[in-house]
Specification:
By secondary structure, this protein is mainly beta. The chain contains no helices and 11 strands. Helices cover 0% and strands 52% of the residues.
Length: 124
């Protein structure tokens, strides 16, 4: 499987961005998906996750209420709508697919395929 993240860019604090993660291959809708981010000098951290059918979502405390994850299995795409952006949201954002089908995961060790990352920069 290949995952292609896009939609990053430079935005002012308080602004919005929408990230997309396009998947290839079969059975996109059978896997949980997630968003992670890594800021310079920091460990990669979980941002949000969504189950294979989209019924269950989870957010890091730092983004809850500002970010919304969704997916369109017919289009093999996951989205992250980011609002009220803060300078501390600046990072490279990665999308990932779970290792196993029909298993809801949200820790890094549960994901087995990763996209290349898209840079999000929030200026103050």
């Amino acid at each position: 499987v290949q995952l292609q993240a896009s939609g990053g860019g430079l935005v002012q604090a308080g602004g919005s961005l929408r990230l997309s993660c396009a998947g290839s291959g079969e059975h996109f809708g059978d896997y949980s998906m997630g968003w992670f981010r890594q800021a310079p000098g920091k460990e990669r951290e979980f941002v949000s996750g969504i189950s294979w059918a989209g019924r269950t979502t989870r957010y890091a405390d730092s983004v809850r209420g500002r970010f919304t994850v969704s997916r369109d299995n017919g289009a093999k795409t996951m989205f992250l709508q980011m609002g009220s952006l803060k300078p501390e949201d600046t990072a490279v954002y990665y999308c990932a697919r779970s290792k196993d089908k029909m298993k809801y995961v949200y820790t890094e060790d549960g994901f087995g395929s990763w996209g290349q990352g898209t840079q999000v920069t929030v200026s103050s």
